[in-house]
UniProtKB/TrEMBL annotation:
The keyword Transmembrane applies. One of its GO terms (biological process) is spore germination. PANTHER family: LEUCINE ZIPPER PROTEIN 4, SPORE GERMINATION PROTEIN. The keyword Lyase does not apply. This is Spore germination protein. Keywords: Membrane, Transmembrane, Transmembrane helix. Belongs to the GerABKA family. It comes from the Bacteria. One of its GO terms (cellular component) is membrane. The chain crosses the membrane at residues 295-314, 391-410, 422-445.
């Protein structure tokens, strides 16, 4: 390292050396056999750690009471040791529920997982009494269901695994346990169905998760940003959901699913751009209705990214495109507006986004009131004050409503962002700017990959069979193969006996 670099970063080498020394010392301590003194040193300054001691029985225990269940603690600890004689202690500890701890690493992890660590005559044992508090299973607030199941994931990974196991009762459903977070040590489970999921995809996903180096990961949406193919893209490359039926469907389709402790959502891979416009409810109603709804979402996508931009382009550069009767109406509507159409549209779009965020952050009842009353009052006041035109209010409101039609919130947020890009291009270059912006979007999408597979599958590369479950929701008898994007070794999906 040069002298200049050392001068610009004083003390950095010493700090890293100290940190490395502490890590080596910590690692050496964790490899030792667990004793009461060593474990108390490891958990020093932990005021919530409870230490109970029975000198007459030479028994000590360490545990966190807020991680233990009262009934489990009474059954495994209080009742067995309440009236036991000192000479019977070793016989009790030889039972199967009392597992020997061979090193401080396993003992400390057991305590952090909610177990009680028992110390008796130089030996250490772990007994599970864990019952962490978690909320009850309820319907997802971001992905409401009309006809389908109403159970959603919660923040406990074990409960989420049980919900998935109840839907896929097969020994071929595999779960690989991993950990992320140098400090948090968060449990992550990689799920796949053996014989349906591509082995290369499984190994690739496992490799990416194992390579993550970060202190704390709070949610699956954070983990997605650390392992996806293109972290700087505005488009989501892995599909996240809080619905158990959607995850079961992804697994059955040959995809890989990742669930994380502390996160009420799971994500699947590989995913394509068009999957974010599909909903589980499409399969719970007649295929014609599901097809119509899905096509409506693609129309909403076109409206939400182009409607306001087209208004700005036409009213700024291309008056000849407007019918004569409509032109008179637009001219009268904009006669009192002192701003160019671009500034006018940006003002209203930003106002809509402010109302949307305010409604999302406030309590439910107040948020609905803010969204409805605020939109009506501000829109009407802006028109009367001459800050905007009636036609633009209709265009902006239509774009906002169309964005809510898209079932995936993360995709809806991405589309809201690129809408501003199209708006700026329309204000600067007119229709040519809109076409150029759309071309840039398609070029960007064509270069994206999800778990090394094309993001625009089944359009690029083209696979007409997959269109039956992408652009339309064909009858189940027509959808006989799993998606080609998964590269599954077992393509056959549906077999209807005649």
């Amino acid at each position: 390292m040069s002298l200049l670099a050392k001068w610009l970063r004083p003390g950095k080498d010493n700090k890293n050396a100290t940190h490395d020394a502490e890590s080596i010392e910590q690692q050496a301590l964790l490899e030792q056999y667990p004793t009461l003194k060593i474990m108390q040193d490891l958990f020093a300054d932990c005021a919530d750690l409870i230490h109970w001691s029975w000198p007459e029985s030479q028994l000590d225990m360490l545990y966190f009471s807020h991680l233990a269940g009262n009934e489990e603690f009474a059954r495994e600890i209080s009742e067995p040791f309440r009236s036991i004689a000192p000479d019977e202690m070793e016989e009790v500890l030889s039972r199967s529920q009392y597992k020997p701890a061979l090193d401080c690493r396993s003992a400390s992890k057991g305590i952090l997982d909610g177990n009680v660590c028992l110390f008796h005559k130089g030996s250490a044992y772990l007994v599970s009494v864990s019952l962490p508090e978690t909320r009850s299973i309820s319907q997802s607030e971001t992905e409401t269901s009309i006809n389908g199941p109403h159970d959603g994931f919660v923040e406990s990974v074990l409960i989420n695994l049980s919900l998935i196991r109840r839907r896929i009762r097969s020994t071929r459903l595999k779960a690989l346990k991993l950990q992320v977070g140098e400090v948090s040590k968060t449990d992550v489970y990689l799920l796949y169905i053996d014989g349906l999921a591509n082995a290369e995809n499984v190994q690739e996903m496992k490799k990416r998760i194992e390579l993550v180096e970060i202190d704390v990961v709070h949610d699956g949406n954070m983990l997605v940003q650390l392992i996806d193919d293109h972290p700087n893209s505005v488009f989501p490359l892995f599909q996240t959901t809080e619905r158990t039926d959607a995850i079961a469907s992804k697994l059955a389709g040959g995809k890989i699913v990742v669930v994380m402790d502390g996160s009420p959502s799971a994500f699947s891979a590989p995913s394509s751009f068009f999957e974010f416009f599909a909903s589980s409810d499409d399969y719970y109603q007649r295929w014609a209705i599901g097809t119509m709804t899905r096509m409506l979402r693609f129309i909403a996508f076109v409206i939400t990214i182009s409607f306001t931009a087209l208004y700005v382009s036409v009213t700024t550069f291309h008056y000849e495109m407007i019918p004569e009767d409509l032109l008179i109406t637009i001219t009268q509507s904009r006669s009192r507006v002192p701003f160019p159409p671009l500034y006018e549209a940006l003002l209203m779009e930003i106002t809509i986004e402010l109302l949307r965020e305010a409604g999302a952050r406030l309590p439910t009842k107040i948020g609905q009131t803010i969204g409805i009353v605020g939109g009506i009052v501000i829109g009407q006041a802006a028109v009367q004050a001459g800050l905007t035109s009636n036609i633009l209010i209709i265009a902006v409101a239509s774009s906002a409503i169309a964005s809510f039609v898209i079932p995936s919130y993360v995709m809806s947020a991405s589309i809201r962002l690129i809408r501003f890009g199209l708006l700026l291009m329309a204000g600067l270059l007119g229709n040519f700017g809109i076409v150029m912006a759309i071309a840039i979007i398609f070029i960007h999408l064509s270069g994206l990959t999800s778990l090394k597979s094309s993001y625009l599958t089944p359009v690029a590369p083209i696979n007409l069979k997959d269109w039956l479950d992408i652009f339309i929701r064909a009858p189940f008898s027509w959808i006989q193969e799993r998606p080609s994007q998964t590269r599954t070794p077992n393509k056959r999906k549906t077999r209807i006996k005649q």
